[in-house]
Write a sequence for this structure.
C-alpha cells in the first residue's frame, strides 16, 4: 500500500514526507528505564508544579513527585524506582530556559505505586483520574487533558490520529499494536464529555488498520480519512475540515461544542484506568539521516544520550537534535537533555545536514510566507510589527491565530526564521 510522497499545502507548496514511508511497520522497541530520570516540574501548559519529595527520599515508579494548586495544573510522576539524588535547575528543551527538575537515581528492584481505584461509570471520577495520572495532550501541545474533559455543551469528540509531521509514525504504530486499548480510552473520554458524536480522523488508508477499524465501527465511531496535508493536523483546521465550521479568532474548539484529543492521549487514559499507571512512558519516532525511523517506547526523563546508547548509536556522530516534530520541534545540542512525557519525536542530525537559519538574509518581500500560511494571516507584516514592538498592529494582524506550523520559515528564500517573530509576537500581544 503506497502513500503519496508529498502533502499538499496552501499556495501550491509540496511537503516531502517520504522519510516516514513504511516506518509504521517497525514495531516499538522498549528501551530500558533511565539510570537517572530527570523529571521536570513543568511538563504541561499551565501552573508550574512544586516538588513533593526531598533529596535522599526513596520514591516508587509512578509516585507523584510534583503538583500544584489551580485548574491548569497536572502532576508529574517518577518514571523509575530509586533515590531522589537532587532537586535543581536543569535546561528545559521546550521552554529554552532553566527549570526545576527532580533527579531520581534508579536503585533496587522496581516497585510500582498504582493510581487509586476509579469508578469508570462516574464522569467526575474519570476526570479526576485523568488529572491524577498527569495526562496531557500527546500531540505536542501538552494541554491538560482533564481541563478539556470538563468542557460543557460538547456535542462532538474528535480523535486526532492525523500525525501529519514528516518524521512521526508512532501514532499509527500504536493504532496497529493497541487497537482495543485505544478504543477503551476513547470511550472513557466520551463518557466524561457526554458527547453524542465521535469522529476518528486519520491519514491511514482503508484496510491498513483493520482491527482498529472493526472495533471503532462496533462502538459507533466514525472513521474519516483526512486530506493529505501537514497543516490540517492543527486542531482548529481539523475541526474546519471535518465539520465545515471555523473556530472564531481568540476561541477554541470547546467554545463551539467540539473537543479534540490525540490518539496517544486516548491510550494514556486507558493505561490510567485499566493498568492504574500514570503517564510515565510513551511511544516516540526516532529519525536519523543515516538510519531512518525507529519506533521507541521510552520512559519520561530518559536523556538523549541514554536513548542513543539503547539503540547502540554514538552521540558524537550527531551535532544537534530536534525534539518533537521536525517542522515544529525544538533544536538542542546537549546529549544530556531529558525527554518529556509528551515527546513524540526525536531527530538526530549529523554535521553534514544543512543549517538553514545560520545565515539569514534580508526580506525580499516575495510574499511566499503569506501565500502558504494555512490560517490566512501575514507572517511578513507580523514580523515587521514584532520587530517594532507595535502591539496594536500585532492584534490587528491576528497574531494569536498563528498555529506555529513553521511553514513560513520553511519556504522563506532568505532563510528568515519568521516563526520566532510570530512566537514573540504572540507573547507581546498577550502582555
Amino acid at each position: 500500500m503506497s502513500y503519496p510522497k508529498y502533502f499538499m499545502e496552501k499556495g501550491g507548496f509540496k511537503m516531502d514526507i517520504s522519510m516516514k514511508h513504511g516506518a509504521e511497520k517497525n514495531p516499538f522497541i522498549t528501551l530500558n528505564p533511565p539510570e537517572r530520570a530527570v523529571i521536570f516540574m513543568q511538563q504541561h501548559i499551565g501552573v508550574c508544579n512544586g516538588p513533593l519529595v526531598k533529596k535522599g527520599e526513596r520514591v516508587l515508579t509512578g509516585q507523584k513527585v510534583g503538583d500544584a494548586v489551580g485548574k491548569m495544573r497536572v502532576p508529574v510522576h517518577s518514571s523509575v524506582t530509586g533515590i531522589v539524588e537532587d532537586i535543581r535547575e536543569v535546561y528545559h528543551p521546550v521552554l529554552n530556559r532553566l527549570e526545576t527538575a527532580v533527579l531520581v537515581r534508579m536503585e533496587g528492584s522496581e516497585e510500582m505505586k498504582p493510581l487509586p481505584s476509579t469508578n469508570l461509570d462516574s464522569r467526575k471520577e474519570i476526570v479526576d483520574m485523568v488529572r491524577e495520572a498527569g495526562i496531557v495532550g500527546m500531540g505536542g501541545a501538552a494541554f491538560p487533558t482533564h481541563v478539556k474533559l470538563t468542557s460543557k455543551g460538547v456535542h462532538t469528540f474528535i480523535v486526532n490520529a492525523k500525525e501529519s509531521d514528516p518524521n512521526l509514525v508512532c501514532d499509527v504504530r500504536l493504532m496497529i499494536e493497541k487497537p482495543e486499548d485505544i478504543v477503551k480510552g476513547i470511550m472513557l473520554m466520551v463518557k466524561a464529555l457526554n458527547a453524542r458524536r465521535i469522529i476518528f480522523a486519520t491519514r491511514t488508508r482503508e484496510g491498513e488498520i483493520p482491527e482498529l477499524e472493526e472495533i471503532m465501527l462496533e462502538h459507533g465511531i466514525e472513521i474519516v480519512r483526512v486530506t493529505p496535508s501537514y497543516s490540517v493536523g492543527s486542531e482548529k483546521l481539523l475541526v474546519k475540515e471535518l465539520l465545515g465550521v471555523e473556530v472564531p479568532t481568540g476561541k477554541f474548539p470547546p467554545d463551539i461544542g467540539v473537543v479534540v484529543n490525540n490518539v496517544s492521549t486516548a491510550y494514556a487514559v486507558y493505561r490510567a484506568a485499566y493498568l492504574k499507571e500514570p503517564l510515565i512512558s510513551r511511544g516516540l519516532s526516532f529519525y536519523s539521516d543515516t538510519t531512518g525511523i525507529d519506533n521507541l517506547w521510552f520512559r519520561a526523563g530518559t536523556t538523549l544520550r541514554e536513548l542513543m546508547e539503547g539503540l547502540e548509536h554514538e552521540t558524537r556522530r550527531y551535532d544537534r537534535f530536534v525534539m518533537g516534530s521536525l517542522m515544529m520541534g525544538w533544536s538542542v545540542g546537549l546529549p544530556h537533555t531529558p525527554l518529556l512525557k509528551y515527546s513524540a519525536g526525536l531527530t538526530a542530525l549529523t554535521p553534514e545536514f544543512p543549517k538553514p537559519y545560520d545565515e539569514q538574509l534580508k526580506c525580499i518581500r516575495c510574499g511566499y510566507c503569506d501565500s502558504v500560511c494555512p490560517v490566512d494571516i501575514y507572517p511578513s507584516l507580523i514580523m515587521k510589527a514584532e520587530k517594532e514592538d507595535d502591539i496594536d498592529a500585532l492584534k490587528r494582524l491576528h497574531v494569536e491565530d498563528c498555529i506555529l506550523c513553521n511553514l513560513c520559515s520553511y519556504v522563506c528564500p532568505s532563510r528568515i526564521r519568521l516563526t520566532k517573530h510570530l512566537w514573540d509576537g504572540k507573547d507581546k500581544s498577550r502582555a
